[in-house]
Amino acid sequence: MMVCDMLEELGDKVIAEAGTLKEAIEVARVADFDLAILDLRLVDETTELVAEITRGRELQFFFLTGHTSDGLPGGFRNTPDWRSPPSAPRSRR
User: What gap in Å lies between CA 47 and CA 64, rounded to an integer?
Assistant: First the structure.
């Protein structure tokens, strides 16, 4: 089940979901929300700019990541994060 589905099942309202960095930046700049859940990586980009915008607006966020806190961008090492389990190793053929 996706995070958005789980949150809605718990009674929360999801106001936006972004699949690209460009979409995430736009949401961070204009949307009214209580909490942003940021995946640290979107394909080959990071959401560091999104976190900066969100923090600048004094809105709450945390990172959803498979990285340790050492893997978070420098200015966000003390930001709350929820670590997802590491991906299963891929078999080599």
Answer: 11
